[in-house]
Design a protein that fits this description.
Strand order of the largest sheet: 3-2-1-4-5
Order of helices and strands: HEEEEEH
Number of helices: 2
Helix content: 40-55%
Number of domains: 1
Strand content: 25-35%
Radius of gyration: 20 Å
Number of strands: 5
Amino acid sequence: MRFPLPHAVVVPVCVTIGVLAVVWAVLAFRSQRRFLGRALGATGVVQSLKAERMERSTVYFPVIRFTTAAGATVTATSKTARSGGYQIGKTIRVLYDPSQPDKLEIDAFWSRWLVVIGALFLAAVSFGIGAAALLNNQG
């Protein structure tokens, strides 16, 4: 396989992107761990769906109403979307910061860790392309 750009360009660019992606993953991981350290869980109900049109599809962000541990009723839009959407009236587990209950997350693995996994995937791909370019130049 031949690279259209010289390895002297591909390798440093890919390594730089890989390093930045690792930094992004570490920062996202630390942020998520801090959130999980203070977050409380609650059961909410999907009240409505906030549609956001993307280039080729529409994603739906659930608007969820739940009661905090302090007894306050909060209605907030999740930052987690799903192409197929959530059903209105569906009961859903959420995590929220007691000091900012409107900043909720759906209590699901992918909702919590997708950014970290995506950043690590980008790092692996970048390092892999850089390594392939380097090895290709030596062979």
